[in-house]
Amino acid sequence: MTFLNTSKTFGRAVATATCGLALAASMALSTAAHADGEVNVYSLRQQFLLEPIFEAFTAETGIEVNVLYSGDEMIERMAQEGENSPADVVMTSSFGTTLRVAEEGLAQAVHSDTLDARIPEQFRDENDQWYALTMRARIIYASRDRVAEGAITDYAQLADPEWEGRICTRSGTHPYNVQLFASRVARYGEEATREWLQGLKNNLARQPDGNDRAQVRAVMEGECDLAVGNSYYYFKMLAEEEQRPWAESVNPVLATAGEHGTHVNVSGVLMAAHAPNPENAIILMEFLAGEQAQRIYADANYEYPVNPSVAPSEALQGLGELTPDSLPLNDVYDNIPTALRLVAEVGYNE
Q1: 132 membership: H or E segment, kind and range
Q2: Please, which residues bridge with residue 141 across strands?
Q3: 197: which residues sit within 8 A by CB, 6+ positions away?
Q4: For 42-100, how does the pLDDT look when each residue is reduced to its tens digit (9 = 90+)?
Q5: Distance, CA of 165 to CA of 172 (rounded, Å)
């Protein structure tokens, strides 16, 4: 198995310019581009998570996996490589990036009865260009000491005056938050979302700052009583000695949009538009949606499997049963520009 980690090497400008180092990395994968028994992966997901999955895949199929780990600049890289790109499979960490890869013509349709059987219709493209692999819930972290259990269960309540000066979030323009806001535009319309977002902004205890974990720490320190963050961070904090007190200070709440369920982000997989090994690419994609790989995702990174035949980890089951918001992901993606505009209009980050 070949691993090339370029996430710290290639910036956006580098990825869109002629760069000897970028060319060398592409050439390292292209040496296997047409080789029998190999598949080339461009990945925005981290190596610690994918390495055991690829090892299991190779053990089962005999197909070697060559991986290029990169950041969002990967999209520009693929566009620049064009028909000469060695990529067979593209793995993304969020649905915004997933849909962008498809939108920019860097993916091709995959017709697989196996994928259709393993991945619910809500989590795959109607044109078969992308498939979700895992889910992460956007939840509310409530102080165990200062918020009664059951006092907040719905995202709508984040705008209630009861929580004035009591909420912490990261930047309103961060993709995790923007996608939540976009889901509300898709569900309730622009004006209702503007009003809700203004209410949430009014309830902030401080100017948005830091990552999701920093918001939970702020709850522990008494700076706020509620925080918004991704579900898997709760368990990652519990696993780290320094951050365990942060997690132990809150109750994680699977908030919902009324009866519509909990907002989720998803990781995804696509076949590259010019995949030199399309047969092996499909075999890998089907494996990623299968029970073994889905279980590794669930156990290693506390993510929810999209394959309904694979149960969440015991840790995640402790949060309660997840009912994902039924909104099509394409509808959320289409409303991201509106959500970003509303964030600016209400001065969310000011």
Answers
A1: strand 131-143
A2: 227, 252
A3: 159, 172, 181, 184, 342, 343, 346, 348
A4: 999 988 889 999 999 999 999 999 999 988 898 999 999 999 999 999 999 999 999 99
A5: 16
